């Protein structure tokens, strides 16, 4: 690949760190990574988001399957995948979701406590 083209593409690529604030806001751990509560850096959008950082470097087949399925699923009971960010500096993959206050893990624990 042409070095100049590569450097230009990296400079123009949207970075998750520039768009969202998430430092110190870890809310959980997903199947393949860590999940952070995030807000847009511009403060123009008061909505909360969930940023999932896929573990490891690069992208695994499991992560590819997860992304492909989430892009296709459109249902009110399935969390919506807003976008995918690739960080070439540290070779990380980030998934942007709508934020949900609770997850299935919490509900499954509550169901067992009530019995």
UniProtKB/TrEMBL annotation:
Keywords: ATP-binding, Kinase, Nucleotide-binding, Serine/threonine-protein kinase, Transferase. InterPro entries: CDK (IPR050108), Kinase-like_dom_sf (IPR011009), Prot_kinase_dom (IPR000719), Protein_kinase_ATP_BS (IPR017441). ATP binds at residue 52. It comes from the Eukaryota. Residues 21-115 form the Protein kinase domain. The keyword Nucleotide-binding applies. It holds the Pfam family Pkinase. The keyword Repressor does not apply. This is Cyclin-dependent kinase 8-like.
